[in-house]
Specification:
50% of the residues lie in helices and 3% in strands. It has one domain. The chain has a two-stranded antiparallel ribbon with strand order 1-2. The chain is mainly α. Pfam families: HTH_OrfB_IS605.
């Protein structure tokens, strides 16, 4: 059985800026992926996670701003988009607006985070190296 934990992380100034950048790039990947899926559906074709992940890897070679953020966060964004499109349909999934969407992302590599205390009430967490 897989279990997950949520932690509220307090960032330093530099870490907060990097986290905002990750959130912004994840939003751009979501919106670009959604537009690509909609265009494919208009033509009667299908697009899913596999081809989009491959194209993301190719795009990272061309665009530095994609390379500057952790790749697993971008892949997780594509997985979330794939699930949303499967459950709700490509044209019912919404864009992520810069004004209405609070930047968020999941950091699936939990083994790179250390917990400072063993009690939940006072537990703090330390993020992996956030240096860009």
């Amino acid at each position: 059985m897989l279990t997950g934990r949520r932690f509220r992380v307090e960032f330093s100034g530099e870490q907060a800026e990097f986290a905002e950048r990750i959130g912004a790039v994840c939003r751009a990947v979501w919106n670009t992926g959604l537009e690509q899926r909609r265009e494919y559906r208009r033509r009667g074709a299908w697009m899913n996670y596999g081809p989009q992940a491959k194209e993301l890897a190719e795009a990272k070679a061309e665009h530095r701003w994609l390379k500057d953020v952790p790749g697993h966060c971008l892949q997780q964004t594509l997985m979330d988009l794939d699930r949303a499109c499967r459950e709700h349909g490509t044209f019912r999934v919404r864009w992520r607006s810069g004004r209405r969407w609070a930047p968020s992302f999941r950091f699936p590599e939990g083994n790179k985070m250390t917990v400072e205390s063993s009690t939940v009430a006072t537990a703090g967490s330390s993020c992996p190296s956030w240096a860009g």
